[in-house]
Amino acid sequence: MRWDPSRYAAFADDRGRPFHDLVAQVAWSADTREAPRRVVDLGCGPGALTATLAARWRSSRVVGIDSSAEMLASAGADPALADLPNLSFELGAIEDWTPGPTDDVVVTNAALQWVPSHVALLPRWLDAMPSGSWFAMQVPGNFGSPSHALMRSIGASGPWAPALDGVLRSDPVLDPAGYLGIMLDAGFVARAWETTYAQLLPGEDPVLDWVRGTGLRPALAALDAADPSGALTAEYVDRYRAALREAYQASAHGTVYPFRRVFAVGRKP
Ligand SMILES: C[S@@+](CC[C@H](N)C(=O)[O-])C[C@H]1O[C@@H](n2cnc3c(N)ncnc32)[C@H](O)[C@@H]1O
Known about the structure:
Pfam families: Methyltransf_25. This is Methyltransferase domain-containing protein. Residues 39-122 form the Methyltransferase domain. By secondary structure, this protein is of the alpha/beta class. It has a single domain (5-267), classed as 3-Layer(aba) Sandwich (Rossmann fold), CATH 3.40.50.150. The protein is built from 11 helices and 7 strands. Helix 6 (146-155) packs antiparallel against helix 11. The protein is globular, with a radius of gyration of 19 Å. Bound molecules: S-adenosylmethionine (SAM).
């Protein structure tokens, strides 16, 4: 399933805010080392946010890992990232990653919801991380919101239903307490929380535009595969667009798209 970096970047400001709120909680302590030896960003996407880590810790090696060649090509073509000699990117699957002995900070923002096995992988990662290291994660927690519930309910009936059967998951992430428990069980000093961002979006169909860049992609890919003419995709999107306009009504200021996100941050003593 391909990613479209330019479509993803359309709401860069709103998509970036949780990342900054997340990494602000990583209080790297200089007690033992001057800087993290290596910083890893799992599911780094187009790399602009990873670059902020490289700017924060200039003497650390900062590595963004992502399985999308399109996202990494976008990172490679971004001139703003070329000025950071400590920043690099690797093509790879999160499922195949294991922490190295110098991975002092691991960040993963809006990526683990795409990795069904992440709940099983977390304890192994945390166990392997070096003492003094930090693990910081954020996942969207909005799979029950109208945008996603409508995506699924409309997808479940209509000519597109067979193509969408089993494609859209309703529960890919845990609540904050679930991630907190995993971190505490691994011996981390941790905290977890959730925030709902009241995102004010411009444009005629901004919620549709938002999910087209992320959560709707599996459905669009399945529909395009089932009917390469695009007619089935267009029919489904028309129905979904109409329902979104009802659920998220525009005001003179724009359209408010409330977006819940789940955070967990911990440090290994
Ligand atoms: C919503 S984007 C988030 C990108 C970036 N972290 C940010 O906050 O803007 C999700 C990213 O996770 C990547 N991704 C999804 N599943 C992955 C996997 N199994 N292994 C590696 N990367 C994955 C996608 O390619 C995409 O770039």
